[in-house]
């Protein structure tokens, strides 16, 4: 019984990993050696030059910077605003608090589809299309899942620590910044990682808001490479840019494996 | 999800209104102010605006003009809209059960005493953090009917190989296949809930002589049913909104473009996107959005109604 179990886990696990291998291996191929039968496992010729030439062919550097920029500012925003809200929901008592919180959490189930068009209209009225603002600014108004996760964590912080600071005459903002935030580091790491990956991987919103090539994110660059440009097949470059996009996420995973898994479990349990 | 609504009850101390201080109320609202603004500006407001727009014709450049129910009546005569519903429903019907069963089975295999758990977990989880754009790029080649590595062993063995992304009948299954690759989140969530079942329950069952299957159906399944339920809801909601993989594989902004052979990849979101951002029919697209929203809301509501029959909540489970 256990043998079968290990066999499935290992066999399945290897199958799950093979597409990573395909991705990296095709990024070293030429268009001619990507579409051949039988499929080449080890590229021949092995074109490491792809990783140099792609920078001349498409604005990879620019797209990487744009992606980093959007990811950073959107994630900082969502963590800061959500931490504030989470503190309010977790620790301060006021009328309407729980109703507001339930309302906020229920929007997790609201499909993005319904809000997409009005938000687009609003931002295009503001002249924000073809800028990073639509991809960053909304995140500064909190994210329901992040608020929920942080609130759960804040509630585990002993009340005594807060009352002690109160007696010393600390104001609420001060308690938040100097007592709660330092104690909440593990939860802030977990939620930050989820926010980083979410923003890094985003596609639909950049697709809607960023039309100029110089504003492209890596995801949009991959999308633009699938078209045959001037009769050339750029599948190999598509693989190169995809690899460039995947690698930072993998590095983040291996650096913070436990936080990753904790975060996923938290979003799913006790939702 | 069900437990969210019970959150207020979990805090009886709130009911003592006299004890609420003015200072706390002011700071409370100040702290949640950004989130409340976000709720109004980016959630509740747009939902209402979207409903209003669905009764208009609006290309953003000119003012919206009221056209009553015309968008809705036109939708029901729109062959492409009907096609997009068929495609999406086909996906939902295949994907939802496949994803839940598959993820649960993998989680079951990983639970219990097992060596090297973190390695297996990583192997199964990693695909789900791959950007869906990159995933679609890989699978575009992986599922290539002539040269793809998936069909390679089938061809070598002389077995009939599906034409995957090139065959209208196989397009939706192909997208299901791609989505199943990034199932890691659900696996981890199921795994945590299965390992969260107290060991003593199984020990007691063993004393009573219950076999593995009986232990599974009377202990594991009921005690994880609330998580299964939550995952079911989330999976249903998300599966109606497939976009990225279908767009990377078949999408185009060009007017009159076709999403895959015979529009077999014309997912609801793809068609809505085309209407809003290709044809600038924002009223029409809003009507589409609202019908999708209603469908998902009704489905979720029905699922919540059925939960008493099969979802088991521990007494005293108060979301803490």
UniProtKB/TrEMBL annotation, chain A:
The keyword Transmembrane helix applies. This is Carbohydrate ABC transporter permease. Belongs to the binding-protein-dependent transport system permease family. PROSITE patterns: ABC_TM1. SUPFAM superfamilies: MetI-like. InterPro entries: MetI-like, MetI-like_sf. Keywords: Cell membrane, Membrane, Transmembrane, Transmembrane helix, Transport. It is a multi-pass membrane protein. It holds the Pfam family BPD_transp_1.
């Amino acid at each position: 019984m256990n043998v079968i179990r290990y066999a499935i886990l290992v066999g399945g696990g290897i199958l799950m990993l093979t597409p990573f291998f395909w991705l990296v291996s095709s990024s070293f191929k030429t268009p001619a050696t990507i579409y051949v039968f039988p499929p080449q496992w080890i590229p021949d010729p092995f074109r490491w030059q792809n990783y140099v030439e792609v920078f001349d062919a498409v604005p990879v550097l620019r797209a990487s910077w744009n992606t980093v920029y959007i990811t950073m500012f959107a994630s900082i925003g969502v963590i800061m605003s959500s931490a504030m809200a989470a503190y309010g929901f977790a620790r301060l008592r006021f009328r309407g608090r729980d109703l507001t919180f339930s309302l906020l959490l229920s929007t997790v189930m609201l499909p993005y589809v319904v809000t997409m068009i009005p938000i687009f209209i609003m931002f295009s009225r503001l002249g924000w299309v073809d800028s990073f603002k639509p991809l960053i600014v909304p995140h500064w108004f909190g994210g329901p899942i992040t608020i929920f996760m942080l609130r759960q964590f804040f509630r585990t912080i002993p009340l005594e620590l807060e009352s002690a600071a109160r007696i010393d005459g600390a104001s609420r903002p001060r308690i938040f910044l100097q007592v709660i935030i330092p104690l909440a580091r593990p939860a802030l790491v977990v939620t930050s990682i989820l926010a980083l990956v979410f923003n890094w991987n985003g596609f639909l919103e950049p697709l809607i808001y960023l039309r100029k090539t110089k504003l492209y994110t890596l995801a949009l660059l991959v999308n633009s490479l699938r078209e045959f440009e001037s009769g050339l097949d750029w599948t190999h470059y598509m693989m190169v840019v995809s690899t460039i996009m995947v690698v930072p996420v993998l590095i983040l995973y291996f650096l913070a494996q436990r936080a990753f898994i904790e975060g996923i479990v938290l979003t799913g349990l006790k939702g | 999800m069900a437990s969210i609504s019970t959150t207020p009850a979990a805090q009886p101390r709130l009911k003592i209104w006299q004890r609420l201080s003015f200072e706390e109320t002011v700071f409370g609202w100040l702290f949640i102010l950004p989130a409340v603004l976000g709720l109004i500006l980016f959630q509740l407001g747009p939902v209402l605006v979207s409903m209003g727009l669905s009764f208009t014709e609006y290309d953003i450049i000119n003012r919206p003009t009221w056209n009553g129910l015309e968008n809705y009546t036109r939708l029901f005569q729109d062959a492409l809209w009907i096609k997009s519903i068929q495609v999406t429903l086909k996906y939902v019907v295949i994907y939802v059960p496949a994803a839940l069963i598959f993820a649960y089975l993998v989680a079951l295999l990983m639970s219990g005493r097992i060596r090297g758990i973190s390695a297996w977990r990583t192997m199964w989880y990693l695909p789900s953090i791959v950007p869906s754009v990159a995933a679609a790029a890989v699978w575009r080649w992986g599922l290539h009917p002539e040269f793809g590595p998936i069909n390679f062993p089938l061809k070598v063995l002389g077995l009939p190989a599906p034409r995957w992304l090139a065959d209208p009948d196989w397009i939706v299954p192909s997208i299901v296949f791609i989505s199943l690759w990034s199932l890691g989140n659900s696996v981890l969530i199921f795994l945590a809930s299965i390992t969260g079942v107290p060991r003593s329950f199984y020990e007691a069952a063993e004393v009573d002589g219950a076999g593995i299957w009986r232990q599974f159906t009377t202990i594991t399944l009921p005690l994880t049913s609330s998580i299964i339920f939550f995952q079911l809801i989330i999976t249903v909601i998300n599966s109606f909104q497939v976009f990225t993989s279908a767009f990377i594989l078949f999408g185009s902004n060009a007017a009159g473009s076709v999403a895959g052979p015979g529009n077999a990849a014309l997912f609801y979101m793809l068609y809505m996107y085309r209407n809003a951002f290709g044809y600038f029919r924002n009223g029409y697209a809003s009507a589409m959005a609202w019908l999708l929203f209603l469908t998902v809301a009704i489905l979720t509501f029905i699922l919540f109604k059925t939960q008493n029959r099969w979802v088991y909540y521990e007494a005293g489970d108060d979301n803490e």
